[in-house]
Amino acid sequence: MRGLINHIDLTVLDPDRSLAFYEAVLGYMGYRRVSAHERGYDFDREAPDGLYTSVGIMRAQGQGRTRRHDRYSPGLHHLAFTAESRSDVDAFHRLLLDIDADVLDPPADYPQYGVGYYAVFFADPDGLKLEYVYWPK
């Protein structure tokens, strides 16, 4: 368990505008919104083995608070979430289409990343690149 990610906070231009997107995306993965506060929202997920993970979406502050995310600037390039199977990736892709999400790359095999690597890449309302991946290791 050492080194597993416990929580991550993502900065967005407007948490209220991004809320429906993240409720759909994170809700599909088993996260539930557990709090709302002046800077944003928190979503928690507890796995059957007791592992806990939290994702927060927080209002951007400081210099970059008015621009879309640039994944090639210093900071986060993208965030990948684990899928249970290839069909799970495909079902998630249908959800992305249903909510009119920005699908960057539809589900496909990516052998350059590893044997069996199958993923869909998409962006949040501020351009943050996200990924849903099945990788049978």
TrEMBL record:
Domain VOC intervals = 4-135
What Gene3D superfamilies does the record point to? 2,3-Dihydroxybiphenyl 1,2-Dioxygenase, domain 1
InterPro entries, A to Z: Glyas_Bleomycin-R_OHBP_Dase, Glyas_Fos-R_dOase_dom, VOC_core
Pfam families per the record?
Glyoxalase
Protein name, entry field: Glyoxalase
